[in-house]
Specification:
GO molecular function, one term: cytidine deaminase activity
Protein name: Cytidine deaminase
Number of strands: 7
CATH superfamily: Cytidine Deaminase, domain 2
Family: Belongs to the cytidine and deoxycytidylate deaminase family.
CATH architecture: 3-Layer(aba) Sandwich
Keywords: Hydrolase, Metal-binding, Zinc
Order of helices and strands: HEEEHEEHEEH
GO cellular component, one term: cytosol
Helix content: 25-40%
Number of helices: 4
Strand content: 25-35%
Radius of gyration: 15 Å
CATH class: Alpha Beta
Length: 132
C-alpha cells in the first residue's frame, strides 16, 4: 500500500463532532499491519484528559483483531483548509513502540513523500545500564 492510499484511508474517517467545548474525530489515523490489513481510528478529546489520540484508536482496533505489528502508520488533520499529515505525539510514539518491539521499525508517514522509521522519532529506548 502506498502512502497516498493510507492517507486517504485516514481522511475518509475524519468527521469532526462538537460536544460542548470538546471536539471528537478531528484527527484520524490509519495503519497498515505486517499482514496487510488496514485499521483506522479517530481522536476523542475530553476535558478531563481521559481522551485519546487517533493513533491509539487505530491501534486498539488492530489489537482487537489480534494483530500487533505495524508496517506503516499515519495521522491526518483538516482544519478549515487543506488536509495535513501530522506526526505522532510523544505519547503515541511510545505507545506504538510498546505494542510490539518490532514496531520500532514501523514506517511513520510524515507527508506524501516523507517517512521515517519510528526508532528515529523516539528518544533512547533501551533500559538504563547498571553503573556497577
Amino acid at each position: 500500500m502506498i502512502n497516498d492510499e493510507l492517507i486517504d484511508a485516514a481522511a475518509a474517517v475524519l468527521h469532526p463532532y462538537h460536544v460542548d467545548d470538546r471536539l471528537f474525530g478531528d484527527v484520524a489515523s490509519a495503519l497498515l499491519t505486517d499482514a496487510g490489513n488496514v485499521y483506522v481510528g479517530v481522536c476523542i478529546d475530553t476535558a478531563s484528559g481521559t481522551g485519546f489520540c487517533a493513533e491509539h484508536a487505530a491501534i486498539a482496533a488492530m489489537v482487537t483483531a489480534r494483530e500487533y505489528k505495524i508496517a506503516k502508520i499515519v495521522a491526518v488533520w483538516r482544519g478549515d483548509g487543506p488536509l495535513h499529515v501530522v506526526a505522532p505525539c510523544g505519547r503515541c510514539r511510545e505507545f506504538i513502540r510498546q505494542i510490539d518491539p518490532s514496531n520500532l521499525d514501523a514506517e511513520v508517514i510524515l507527508g506524501k513523500h516523507r517517512t521515517a522509521p519510528l526508532r528515529t522519532l523516539l528518544p533512547e529506548t533501551d533500559w538504563a545500564s547498571p553503573l556497577d
